[in-house]
Amino acid sequence: MKRFWLIIPMLLLVAPVLAQEPAQEDEQEPAPVVTRISGTLLGADGEPMEFAHVHLQPLSPGKTIASMEVAPDGSYELETDTTGVFRLRFTGAHHLEKLGTLLLTGAGNPLEIDAQLSTHTYKEDFSEVAVTGDFNDFSFRNDVRAMEPQADGTYAVEIEVEADSLAYQIINVLERQRSINGTMSDRYVYDGGGDYRSVVPVEDGKVRIVFDPEKLKVVEGEAMVRFRDEDCIEAGYAAFHQDLTDQRTAYFEQLTKMREEETPDSVMKAFSKDYDWSETHALIEKALDETNDVEMRHTLLMTYLSNAGRVDSVYAQMALAEIEPASSKWSMGRFNVMKAVNASGQKEVYNDFIYAVLRENEDKTLKASLLQYLVGMADYEERDAEKQILYAWLVAEYPDTFEAKWAKNQYDPARAIREGAPVPEFEIASMEDSTVVFSSENMKGQVYLIDFWAVWCGPCIAEMPNLHEVYEKYKDDGFTILSLSFDGSPDEVTEYREGEWKMPWLHAFADGGFSSDMAKSFQVLGIPKPILIGNDGMILKTERDLRGDKLDKTLAEVFGYETEEAEEMEKK
Fold first, then answer.
1. Whole-prediction pTM value?
2. What is the pLDDT of residue 19?
3. Under a CB-based contact definition with an 8 Å cutoff, are residues 426 and 498 in contact?
4. Topology of domain 32-119, per CATH?
5. How far is CA 54 from CA 37, 487, 494, in A?
6. Which helix or strand (DSSP H or E) is residue 112 part of?
7. Omega before 490 cis (within 30°)?
8. Burial, 492: exposed, middle or buried (Cβ in 10 Å; 0-12, 13-18, 19+)?
9. Sequence-distant (≥ 6) Cβ neighbours of residue 501 within 8 angstroms
10. What is the pLDDT of residues 253-271, one digit of tens each?
11. Where in the chain are the domains?
């Protein structure tokens, strides 16, 4: 299948005009070209689904551009005048969503795209099935209603409801934590996240919800998204994007497998360092060779920057040389500017390019993200004067962005979490014994590290060797660690600690994660977030001095060890 071909510049298609009136100053710009996208969306059995949708969305989180319900025969059609790279999201009741990548060139060529979904992978044991819904704002934790097993093999629960109907989902039935529509429904409502909610009527203020495992749809087969014209440029681009994604996925699957097999960190680091990304580099080389269209070339380079596991310096320099700082192409990946600069091997050469993007590009989200990165790097490298300038720029120009709020939590002189400030008052139960409570008051008298983390957080897991090392080294000096988990349940922490890293210190579960009271009190917008507290309850150090090798050096200073003594302790 041909992936790309030469696109003939539009100017060559325009017939010469023998006589032409001079352009008028008030001449209006031509209306945007509309692209029609149509096709079919079917279920795993090849038949239309009860309720399904097609959504056109930006690649990065943002407002859905277009969304439509699929017709009863499985057909759909939507129109858009947008251009760029987008995501087509195909969803259906009782099915797992499927994503496709869509390049919209603005040429106006109609696109026909068919999709077929796969069914969910269910657990063998449904004993923990539960209901979440309108009654608890679809929370996974608060006021979840467990379903009781029935003699006929079903599960049921009765819920009191003041409204005329109830929208609900079931949880704890899939191999992965996800809420899906139930087997009992009068109708369905899309939940905005790839799944559906079942809606049932309420009579006399009560509704009895029944979950019947026999009604679950299980069909073998993989989901697919297919362009009817496999030689069109959009199909070629989608295949290129998918190939990049597949290669990156294969890398992370191997890392996950190594973690599950409790492979030593040193071996995993060597694996990551020496991993062969040559196939990924070959993909971009081939794609660039097959087009001479400038717009397509820039799109390919940005797609490579966004999806390559490791960026080759050749293509990083190529992107920086060919794509202007003001180009909207840089918006295809919020961190593509820095990925290109860092991978170029010539950071100093491209420093001016970074600031040109900040001056000239119109994408405020891109510029706020770029400033956030620069502030963080200046802080990490202890370039404090530059950090203050960049911080002031970020909060002044983009005050309502997440990036500015993050920066205020990290660097605002009046922030609650800062060196020399008292630790916020807190009380949280021990994960191992709920009768034991850790608090800002009873933790006084010892130096302790509050560590907000989660099993799913890669950078958190990367800190495990450092945390274990300092715990063993300084625990007899009155040092301990209080790890606060942001995981889905305490069981995930318990299971993790059965592996290589035992984490033999204090543990608590921050129910609600980033929405928990602890997260709000400690202004946690990202993890890991380590905070070192002195024996008098005052904050000694925050993140910059508590990650990687700096953690040991910081604690050596806190406990009064000279460098030589710290080295001697390490030998022991």
1. 0.74
2. 33
3. no
4. Immunoglobulin-like (2.60.40)
5. 10, 31, 40
6. strand 111-116
7. no
8. middle
9. 461, 464, 468
10. 898 888 778 788 788 888 8
11. 32-119, 130-215, 230-383, 427-571
